[in-house]
Amino acid sequence: MRKVISLNDGWQFWQNGQHSTVTLPHTWNAVDGQDGGNDYFRGVCRYVRRLKRPVLEDGESVWLEVKGAAMTARVALNGEELVCHQGGYSAFRVDLTEHLREDNELSISVDNSDNDMVYPQKADFTFYGGLYRDVNLIVVPKEHFDLSYCGAPGIKVTPVVDLETGSAKVTVETWQTGSGNVRMTVQGDGWSAENGCQTVASENGHAVAVFTIEKVHLWDGVEDPYLYRAAALLDSGDEVRTRFGCRSFAIDPQKGFLLNGRSYPLRGVSRHQDCKGVGNALTLEHHRRDMEIAREIGANTLRLAHYQHAQEFYDLCDANGIIVWAEIPYITMHMKNGRSNTLQQMEELIAQCYNHPSIVVWGLSNEITAASAVNEDLLENHRLLNDLCHRMDPTRLTTMANVFMLETDSPILEIPDVNSYNLYFGWYLGELEQNDEFFDGYHSKYPNRAIGFSEYGADANPQFQSSNPEKGDYTESYQALYHEHILKMIEERPWLWATHVWNLFDFAADGRDEGGKHGENQKGLVTFDRQTRKDAFYLYKAAWNREPMVHICGRRYIDRAEDVTEVKVYSNAAEVALYVDGKLLGAKQGRRVFRFQVPISGEHSIEARAKFPESLSACAVGEQTVKLPDGTVEISDSITVRRVQTKNPDYVFVKKQDVVNWFDQDEFDPDCFSISDTLADLRANPEAGAIVNQMMEKGAASRGDVAEAVKDNPGLQRMLGRMTLISLLKQAGNIEEESIRQLNRILQKIKK
């Protein structure tokens, strides 16, 4: 009989010679990784605890299971190092049996410092350090299911659905020590005890049983995420269990995503695994809350970026019918010494996550050409990853998230089965319409390639509001306008196989200091602490969630310095009526976005009302529901606005020059060049261009930074011409602040 013993309690945590008692999950960057300060610690810390030898019966063995240690972990028992695991997002195990004494010291040293071989090393999110997931002891009998391979569960289930016959062939495989019999069972709808159980002999530690489900109950996305159960039992009493779903899917360049033979457009969001105040040391309750918010917005897909997430969250995706894009942290910068680590992390991802029906694609990399040239070493790395995925899992497809400046004729796009692009036109550069133009151009040029929209978004600090929002103002108001355009663009292009908002939640990015907050990327539709849903959240809820809802935008925009103000309502009703101080202003028919011009003179109560059939379910928290005599249900939402003489300065982000925003104050002459100018403008001036080109050439000598990619690729130069120099330097990441300041001082001496 297998026993699992939690080791989450009783750890002594050592950092810089100081120690404290901690309980797992734990990260040492819960605060400093989120405030953007100079105290953000990346290095080696040590977790130590006493460990009594369990009482073992004859032949039993003891394994240590670490579910997440970021980023490199060294496990030692009584001073003897037993394993070094490189990769902060996958589980690993080590056999302690022959090394145990009666009383033991277990030590796990965890290292999240900079290096050139373990991914990730350069990306726009905080690289937390710590034992941030559970740690267990597993005691198993002499004959047991394998614990040594890649942290895998020891049982693998492969369902293949035949839609024409309505049946499924389910192959169950196990790996175990010894050569005894394995009793395998599959349970679910339509099964009897006879056809749901087989006893098979193990050959060379491997057993296989095939079950045929004649009338299969499909795992059918959010509509019906039905799960079967599989189990395997040895004569020794060791047992493993898993859940699985039977579904068929395909991705068509013209029709988009197909689930169980029908069109099923994937429309959803991306998620990082951290939260304000706790970092990435999430509990099951944190995961459940995130899933509840994802279901509230009505998403049917999640891109779990940019690494392997907790098994508990994949379980929640299975149970809620959420289609998942799973990926490894091969991101931003290709490292010549990192190939084996990418292959290891992909092998662990697939081995540990294979049984999850929610996962449909394995992501090879994210924006890997942002700071690296497309050379043969990078291409070969992707070919090897792609081949590994297909060898381990012929049932799923491979994909990539490509950075916006990657030319569409790049050979890297030919490697995965399907592709997606991360585009930020309308935020970092360009205009919103360029998103439409990009996809139309791609689809026209490559009609036989499936293409998706893997990232898009705009930063928004809910404190900042505007009646005339503009790109770059960090207002909640502009974020809403941005997403209104993108949502319409997506709906007009059903051939986009999947679209994912970046991001569902604000998340920690230690290198950021912008938009009025330190150390945060604020592109989330919900704030980092999960307490505030921004207006754009309700736009998608109106589009994706069938539950009746009405939401008035601008509830944090109370003080308004205009005689007539726009009041915007998001709703999935066909008509919305607006009341001001209890009197009907008017009603509008439309789809999702309803705009009203409201005269204001003092403080006003504004209420939006919409009617729905009574048969529809209740709506979100905070909205008022009233049953009417005609059999309909009226739902309302209200806000307060106040006419003021001057704009409230608290609503305005005081935008400074980038050099001031990111570094100490320097005197700034707007008549001279600076790092805030675009690459194209700088190169148009011979003197400034010579300085920039010299910097690029110098940067190309360093390990794979953005300068090398720009220098060697004319296509990138054209596309990056509209980006500011400071934006490029931020992406490069490994340039010292003083060097950037000195570069700015040199440019400030050149008149425009």
What distinguishing features does this structure have?
752 residues, eight-stranded parallel β-sheet, alpha+beta, 43 strands, six-stranded antiparallel β-sheet, 14 helices
Write the layout of secondary structure elements.
Elements lengths: L2 E4 L4 E5 L2 E5 L21 E9 L8 E6 L2 E2 L1 E6 L2 E7 L5 E4 L7 E9 L18 E2 L3 E6 L14 E8 L4 E9 L5 E7 L9 E5 L4 E8 L5 E2 L3 E2 L2 E7 L4 E6 L4 E4 L3 E4 L2 E2 L2 E6 L12 H14 L3 E4 L6 H10 L2 E5 L11 H15 L5 E8 L9 H17 L4 E7 L15 E4 L10 H13 L5 E5 L20 H16 L6 E4 L5 E8 L2 E5 L13 H10 L5 E3 L6 E2 L3 E8 L3 E6 L2 E7 L2 E8 L3 E11 L10 E4 L4 E12 L14 H5 L16 H6 L1 H15 L5 H6 L2 H7 L4 H8 L4 H11 L5
Parallel strand pairs: 25-26, 25-32, 26-27, 27-28, 28-29, 29-30, 30-31, 36-43
Antiparallel strand pairs: 1-12, 2-3, 2-4, 4-10, 5-9, 5-12, 6-11, 7-8, 7-10, 13-14, 14-17, 15-16, 15-20, 18-19, 20-21, 22-23, 23-24, 33-34, 35-37, 37-40, 38-39, 38-41, 41-43, 42-43
Helix pairs in contact: 1-2, 3-4, 6-7
